[in-house]
Amino acid sequence: MPELSIDGRKVNVPEGTTVIEAAEQLGIFVPRYCYHPGLSTAGNCRMCMVDVENSPKPQIACNLPATEGMVVETESEQARKDRAAVLEFLLANHPLDCPVCDQAGECDLQNYYMSFGLYDPRFGEQKVKKQKAIEVGPHVMLDQERCILCSRCVRFTDEITKTGEFGIFNRGDRAEVGLYPGETLDNPYSANVVDLCPVGALTERSFRFKARVWYLSSTESVCGGCSRGCNTELHHVSNRPHLNDGERLLRVKPRHNPDVNQWWMCDEGRYGHDWIDVDRLGEVRRRTDEASRRQVESTWEAALDGVGTALSAGGARVGVIASAELTNEDLFCLREVLGAHLGARIALPPAPAGGTSDDFLIRPDKTPNRKGATLLGIPDAATPSAEALVDAAIAGELDVLWVFGHDLVELVGAEKTRAAAVGECLLVYSGTNDHATVSLAHWVLPSAAAVEQDGTFVNCDGRVQRVGRALAPYGDSRENRRFLLEIAARTGTPAREDWNGPAGVFATMAEAVGSFAGMSYESIGDQGAHSAPSEALAEAEQS
Ligand code: SF4
Ligand code: SF4
Fold it and tell me: Per-residue pLDDT for 539 more than 70?
């Protein structure tokens, strides 16, 4: 554990630590372009130069091992002059098109110029022209003039995806980043190069010219695209939808979590959120005519009264098809209100076979909370499958069948779905988007999406993680938890008042379910926490 001094402060670091990492331990930020903790060290941008006692020349902090007794200055006059000189060199050929650059406002060239540059330009010659607006892949646009040749994108495709699409070609001021002949940047993680690019050379095609970044609000959350649960930041303009034709979620960025996704996320998760504003269920509907199965708009009061009455009729036989897209808090309320107190049999359809996966992040189960459902005992061993519940509804053995999120046509086929909808059984549907089952239901209760509510998921490794509410629920939709509690009130089911918020439900869940014991909504924090191994989980894993 060598001890060194940085800007007059002592720090002990493990052998092999570099000076830039040691400075970070002290909270001292050394500016950088090419250095990234998730990639190999390139040492080519020279932006992180620091003064080291007894060294005749400045040193790059990213590639300098910390040694015993080393004395480093990051803010000496010489270090500041060195940084300003590097910036002047990088900006000599830069097009300075910040007013039309999507990166403006979060660009390290802009930010560092304001912090460390502030020189009067001396470069009066013609700038080198390069290609702009090159579509290098389905998600990414390249502007070669803005590139500062840090090589982060090249190292990402070499070291992380190992697909090697990018290279740096030519020499001197003609050097430029680009694709190898015949290549397209279309690997499953391609858009991470945009996050890595410290300037506006690589930008997202889907975000191009949509918003200035200073109008965006940010919410920490978790991707629901598969059971990995990559940590994310949701960037949205919920207070300014008129700026973006009503589109509310403008982009998704990975959030660093060393135990889950490091710095990365896949393109499918990043761009798989169109459904949040397309084909959404925004109003309560009820069936008015049994013969034609016509539906009309209704109210929450009428729906909750109607469904509540059917559920509380003496000896009502209830079946529930739950979804692994629901949060733990929704599933717990469902289990307590419909299962424990109304005796509902709760099924959970298995993950469809054939989901894509790899040996990095992407998991074959495209639902975010199957493990959470398992920890909550959904489905339990005695519960029939979703198909068995539909069969029971057709045979007149159920009075209410409540489906969460699933399209029954996909689960059991169109014929059985129609048969279940025309029988005596009341078909209730709760979910976010329109599909075939919706139009067959007696009651349609629109649900808020995961980005429209707070709660928790448990990822494939058993890590409990918080999802964050970025947007208001779409139209008249509500959190499942909220309308389940209203059903509880109408059916005389005991439910605690503090269940109105996710923290209150979580607290009860932690008391009732061993795997969540000792945890609280607050203690999970922004990086998640491991649930305790449970028998239910072990059994599910074995099967
Ligand atoms: S495109 Fe961006 S990440 Fe790639 S070398 Fe240029 S500046 Fe670096
Ligand atoms: S790997 Fe899964 S959780 Fe991660 S971003 Fe992709 S879809 Fe989302």
Answer: no
Q: Which fold has domain 285-351+364-454+472-502?
A: Rossmann fold (3.40.50)
Nearest CA to ligand 2 atom 4: 230
What residues have CB less than 8 Å from 125, skipping those under 6 apart?
Answer: none
CA-based nearest residue to 42, from 168, 145, 130: 168
Position 240 pLDDT exceeds 70: no
Report pTM: 0.94
**pLDDT tens digit sequence for 170-225:** 999 999 999 999 999 999 999 999 999 999 999 999 999 999 999 999 999 999 99
Pick the CATH number of 93-207 from 3.40.50.360, 3.40.1190.20, 3.30.70.20, 3.60.70.12: 3.30.70.20
Within 10 angstroms of residue 522's Cβ, the number of other Cβ atoms is 10
Decide whether any atom of ligand 1 lies within 6 Å of the 234 Cβ: no
Mutate which of 131, 197, 204 for ligand 1? The one with the most ligand atoms within 8 Å of its CB, which is 197
Q: Which two tokens stand for residue 214?
A: 């200073």
Cα–Cα distance between 143 and 133 in angstroms, integer?
5
Helix (H) or strand (E) holding 77: helix 77-92
Residues with CB under 6 A from ligand 2: 223, 225-226, 228-230, 261, 265-266, 268-269, 361-362
Using a 10 angstrom Cβ sphere, with 0-12 exposed, 13-18 middle and 19 or more buried, the burial of residue 330 is buried
CA of 197 to the centre of ligand 1 (A): 5
- CA 68 to CA 325: how far, in whole Å? 52
